[in-house]
Design goal:
Blueprint lengths: L1 H22 L9 E2 L8 E7 L6 H10 L5 E3 L2 H6 L1 H9 L3 E2 L14 H19 L5 E2 L10 H7 L3 E3 L3 E2 L7 H11 L5 E5 L11 H16 L3 E3 L1 H4 L13
Parallel strand pairs: 1-6, 2-3, 2-8, 2-9, 3-4, 5-6, 7-8
Helix pairs in contact: 2-8, 7-8
The chain binds zinc ion.
Length: 243
């Protein structure tokens, strides 16, 4: 009986460790990733996943208004659907990362599946933005076996987040409150300018939350920057500078 409980205890501990390795923001077992920047600089990286969508241009106007340069993690298939909007991300000075090609969860998938999802997305992003991504945000924040090797092959580092707006399900007011509460030096904030691969998604709550949040962060003296700037890593780009 005691031995049986011991086995169960070990199994429960192993399951807990595995769950943390898959989803934990600071876990490194399946692949290394960052989830925050240095606390010594008054800077915050606001990031947007799952775009581009038909409403991304409206969001870009809000970001321009507040001189915020952000990092976007678009889905490869969404880029193929809206390539002109995707091009606009880089044209307006934002950084573009890799968020997979189809946005299928990596959990329980074969390493070759991860490789294909990442490799195709690298090419799709580079094709429209001129930027070969250096940052990877895994779909649903979910790592799996084979990810570490795939990241190394493609020169990618994982990026999680320190504050999550939950904007796919919360009101603008709630998203704003969550991000305001998470704002601190070195924060990486997670929002979405699309809703997975939904056509014409409603992201009005996201845009409204950003419209309220950015001027407040700037008033508090935060520099709103890309993940590369936050983590002091030079961004590789094939785009000609100054254009
Ligand atoms: Zn996503």
């Amino acid at each position: 009986m005691i031995a049986g409980l011991g086995v169960l205890g070990v199994a429960a501990a192993a399951a807990g460790t595995m769950a943390y390795a898959v989803r934990g923001r600071s876990a490194t077992l399946l692949a290394p990733s960052h989830w925050r920047g240095p606390a010594g600089r008054r800077a915050i990286a606001v990031t947007f996943d799952d775009g581009p969508s038909e409403s991304t241009p409206e969001l870009l106007d809000v970001l321009d208004e507040h001189q915020a340069r952000c990092t976007f993690f678009p889905i490869g298939r969404n880029i193929e659907r809206l390539p002109e909007i995707a091009k606009e991300l880089a044209r307006r000075g934002h950084e573009v990362g890799n968020h997979s090609y189809t946005h299928s969860p990596f959990y329980l998938r074969h390493p070759q599946f991860l490789e294909d999802e990442i490799a195709i997305a690298q090419d799709v992003v580079e094709g429209v933005s001129g930027q070969r991504p250096v940052w990877l945000r895994v779909p649903y924040g979910c790592r799996w076996f084979g990810l570490k090797d795939a990241q190394q092959r493609h020169g990618l580092t994982g990026v999680m987040w320190s504050g999550n707006g939950l904007d796919w399900k919360k009101s603008a007011k709630a998203v704003h409150a969550r991000l305001k509460g998470a704002a601190r030096s070195g924060a990486i904030l997670l929002l979405h300018d699309g809703r997975e691969r939904t056509l014409r998604p409603d992201i009005r709550n996201t845009i409204e939350a950003v419209r309220r949040l950015l001027p407040e962060l700037r008033e508090q003296g935060y520099h709103l920057c890309t993940v590369s700037e936050l983590l002091c890593q030079k961004q590789r780009s094939n785009a000609s500078s100054g254009s």
